Amino acid sequence: MPATLKPAAEMARNAKTPFPGASAAYEEARRALLAEEIEFRRHMSRLTEQRRALPPGPVIAKNYRFQDEQGSEVGLIDLFGDKQTLVAYFWMYGPQRERPCPMCTNWLGAVHGNAADIKQRVALKVLGRSSVERQLAFAQERGWRDLNFVQTVGDDYARDLGILMPDGSEYPALTIFRRDGDKVRLFWASEMAREMADPGQDPRDAPDIAALWSILDLTPEGRGTDWYPRLRYD
User: Fold this and answer.
1) Is residue 209 part of a domain?
2) Among 52, 54, 68, 170, which one is most buried in terms of CB atoms within 10 A?
């Protein structure tokens, strides 16, 4: 039997504003917001449990090929190393791009700070259509030491994910694979496509995987409508 949870509004009444002088209107609104935050936390926990309970996904039948940092051509299962799960992020740094996508770069910068810890639990690979050498050169420029880069050999992987456009541009993709003996199965893939975005919003997952937006969502100004991360700030 699942544990009985206290009503969120009841729990929120125990909160204390950190600094004195808050108005009654602020206190009331903050308690109401806190109750919603508690419910949101609980919903995220239910989503996590529902995700982990997914039945086995499809076996990846196509023999996708990749080139690793040692210059070896490998298959998808080789990217797991000694782990059972592979987190694969395909970033927008194809050969037609002079520089990588700023948002992909921002996200990978945040992931890099946790990469050594993440790799204790799962395999973590960054996939791109540019050569490994080109990806590593940019990684060195950014000071990324704990991310592992892989080149997709050919475009089947990106095309089958539905992220390669006719003009050669691409979209990012976060995909989680699970080892099943000598086979690889899809566990989960981000599927909130552009057409699923709500009015006035960029396409995004829930919860948002970008630390940048998660922090800005806590602020009065929010994400803004005329601002986007850049590769350099002069």
Assistant:
1) no
2) 170
Residue 147 lies in a domain: yes
Domain span holding position 49: 8-13+26-53
Flag whether 223 is in a domain. Answer: no
Question: Quick one: which of 188, 184, 189, 153 has its CA closest to 79?
Answer: 184
Residues sharing a CB contact under 8 Å with residue 47, sequence separation 6 or more, in sequence order: 206, 207
Instruction: For the chain, 234 residues long, give each residue's pLDDT as a single digit of tens.
Output: 457 999 999 999 999 999 999 999 999 999 999 999 999 999 999 999 999 999 999 999 999 999 999 999 999 999 999 999 999 999 999 999 999 999 999 999 999 999 999 999 999 999 999 999 999 999 999 999 999 999 999 999 999 999 999 998 999 999 999 999 999 999 999 876 777 677 877 777 777 788 888 888 888 888 888 888 999 888
